[in-house]
Amino acid sequence: MDAFAVSIATGVCLKEVNHRQVFRLSWHFGLFQALMPIIGWSAGAAVHTYMVAFGHWIAFGLLTLIGVNMIREAFKPEDCDVLLNDPTRGWSLVMLSLATSMDALAVGFSVSMLDISIWLPAFIIGVVACLFTIIGLQIGKRIGALTPLGFYAEMLGGVVLIGIGANILHQHGVLSI
Does 176 fall in a domain? Predict the structure, then answer.
């Protein structure tokens, strides 16, 4: 669901989404969502305490960074049709992929303690994340294309990302709201 929400926000930010952007974001979200449980399962209990203690902070930091950047971009005048900071490229893509898949890392840790094979669950997680990302981008693109709503939608997208990060902290007991 994090990948779905982030892909909606990304679609809003981009307003126009091409096939390459859809492929890049859905491939990376699906890949990271599939690989993180495998990594977590492989690492097992050795680093479980470390990731439980800090994983939610990493996810919060990455989502907040991207969210603040989206809010900042909403206030910039659009001089051209091309968005300068495409979140489906470079470090933004890697940070979003990592941030949305940190929970999958924890799932891998949990599954390793149950002594269950991780391969089928990781495959299913990756495919579902990929499909939800494609759907989310299409929804976000339609919202972002509504010109009068574009500024507000981009602002909302940034706030949603920060909210997802705050929710991760809340779920881990850091914020007792």
Answer: no
Q: Per the structure, how many domains does the chain have?
A: 1
Q: Could you give the 3-state DSSP secondary structure of residue 78?
A: coil
Domain range enclosing 48: 2-171
Write out pLDDT tens, residues 156-170: 777 877 887 788 788
Q: Is 177 inside any structural domain?
A: no
Burial (CB < 10 A; 0-12, 13-18, 19+), residue 128, is middle
Q: Domain for residue 46, yes or no? A: yes
pLDDT, residue 129, reads 92
Cα 56 to chain centroid distance, Å, stands at 13
pLDDT digits (tens, 9 = 90+) for 82-139: 444 677 888 888 888 888 887 777 777 767 766 678 899 899 999 999 999 999 988 8
Check if the beta carbon of residue 29 is closer than 8 Å to that of residue 47: no
Q: Is residue 93 part of a domain?
A: yes
